[in-house]
C-alpha cells in the first residue's frame, strides 16, 4: 500500500462527520430526538473509522504517521474543527436551556431547588483530532 493511501479517505470521512454534526444541530433545533440519536450513532461510527484510519496511517509511515501537510486533509480538518466548535456550543446551550426549563417547571409546581452549577449535568462528547 502506498504511503498516502491511508490518508485518501481521511478528508472524505471528516467531511461525512462534519455533515453529521450539522445534521445533529438541525435535529436539536427541530426537537427531533430520533434524528438526533441516529446522527449521534453515525458520528460515533465515523469517529471509530477515523481512529482506525489514523492508526493504520501511523503503521504505514513509522515515526511520522500521516502526511498532515496535504491541502485536502488540512481543509477538511479545519472545517470539521469549526463545525465541532459550533456543535459543542449548541450542546452546552441546550443543556443550560434544559436545566433552566427544569428549574422553571419545578418552581411552578412548588418544588423549588437552586441550580448547583451553571453547566449542564448531561455528559457530552466530541471528536477531537
Write the layout of secondary structure elements.
Layout: H1 5-29, H2 33-60, H3 71-108
Helix pairs in contact: 1-2, 1-3
Plain-language structure description:
- With 129 residues, this protein is an all-alpha fold.
- 71% of the residues lie in helices and 0% in strands.
- It is built from 3 helices and no strands.
- The radius of gyration is 19 Å and the shape is elongated.
What's this entry about, in short?
The chain is mainly alpha-helical and 129 residues long.
Task: Write out key terms for the chains shown.
single chain, 129 residues, mainly alpha, 3 helices, 71% helix, disordered N terminus
Order of helices and strands: HHH
**What distance lies between the first and last C-alpha atoms, to the nearest angstrom?**
24 Å
- Overall shape: it is elongated
Please state roughly what percent of the residues sit in beta strands, choosing from under 5%, 5-15%, 15-25%, 25-35%, 35-45% or over 45%: under 5%
Main pleated-sheet profile: none
Helix content: over 70%
Low-confidence stretches: 1-7
The residue-averaged pLDDT reads 74
Structural class: mainly alpha
Radius of gyration: 19 Å
Number of E-state strands: 0
Number of helices: 3
Amino acid at each position: 500500500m502506498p504511503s498516502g493511501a491511508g490518508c485518501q479517505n481521511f478528508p472524505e470521512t471528516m467531511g461525512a462527520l462534519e455533515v453529521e454534526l450539522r445534521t445533529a444541530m438541525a435535529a436539536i433545533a427541530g426537537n427531533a430526538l430520533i434524528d438526533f440519536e441516529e446522527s449521534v450513532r453515525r458520528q460515533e461510527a465515523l469517529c471509530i473509522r477515523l481512529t482506525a484510519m489514523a492508526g493504520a496511517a501511523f503503521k504505514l509511515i513509522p515515526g511520522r504517521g500521516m502526511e498532515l501537510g496535504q491541502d485536502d486533509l488540512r481543509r477538511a480538518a479545519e472545517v470539521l474543527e469549526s463545525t465541532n466548535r459550533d456543535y459543542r456550543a449548541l450542546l452546552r446551550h441546550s443543556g443550560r436551556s434544559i436545566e433552566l426549563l427544569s428549574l422553571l417547571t419545578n418552581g411552578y409546581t412548588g418544588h423549588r431547588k437552586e441550580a448547583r452549577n451553571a453547566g449542564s449535568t448531561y455528559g457530552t462528547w466530541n471528536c477531537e483530532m
